[in-house]
Amino acid sequence: MTLPSDRHYTVELHASAERVPQIQRILAAHLRYWSLELHIEPVCRGVAELLTNVHRHIGPDAPCVVELRWSGRHLTASVADGGPRLPKLSSAGGGGLSRVAALSDSWGTCGTPDGKVIWFTRRVEATRKVPLTAPTPLRSVPDAKGQPAVPPVLPVEPLVEPLVEPVPEVVAAGPAATASPVVACA
To answer: Which whole-number Å values give the CA distances from 120 to 43, 47, 135, 149, in the listed order?
Structure first.
């Protein structure tokens, strides 16, 4: 099965101490691009442990290959080097491989004609695309000056009472009719 090129990354390097932080930044950028932000710290720490082991056990300028693969369900990181001995967790004594085992769902080693590969895998849940831009802030969020961003208070015009004008009395014809004042509203 071939993976799309955007789900696979490989780099060849010499296992020097100053290269480890640089490789961590590169791997973090790929994981962000694949929307796998939750895996940045454990994957970068695991690869740093494996590169440190190459530096310590094979040599300070030993050539190695770092590979990162994402199948859609599993994220696998591996480091291949030219060292002939396969490491064992029991001989690690709480060192790099036990840390790699703690950071991963599975790990292993494999002998190759040129040396060995040490790998670890993490299960990946389905990712959701999240926009990188922040949503519009709410009105209660402080502005740049630290003041709450509230709308300005507009002046309220006073209510005007209706004008009451007396109307002249009207005299009606007949005994039952009485005159009462009529109020007109303007």
So the answer is: 9, 9, 37, 49
d(Cα 7, Cα 73) in Å, to the nearest integer? Answer: 12
Query: Smallest Cα–Cα separation from 106: which of 93, 124, 122?
Result: 122
- Strand blocks (E) in the chain: 8-14, 63-70, 74-81, 106-112, 115-123, 164-166, 183-185
Tens-of-pLDDT digits for all 186 residues of the chain? 454 445 899 999 998 888 999 999 999 999 999 999 999 999 999 999 999 999 988 888 899 999 999 988 899 999 999 998 888 776 555 677 888 999 999 999 999 999 999 999 999 875 555 555 555 655 665 556 666 556 666 666 666 665 666 666 655 555 555 544 555 555
Contacts of 130 (CB under 8 A, 6+ apart): 35
How far apart CA 15 and CA 63 sit, in angstroms, is: 6
Question: In Å, how far are 67, 92, 129 from 76, measured between CA atoms?
Answer: 8, 21, 21
Contact criterion met (CB below 8 Å) for 64 and 109? no
- Whole-structure pTM value: 0.63
- Rounded Cα distance between 118 and 51, Å, is 10
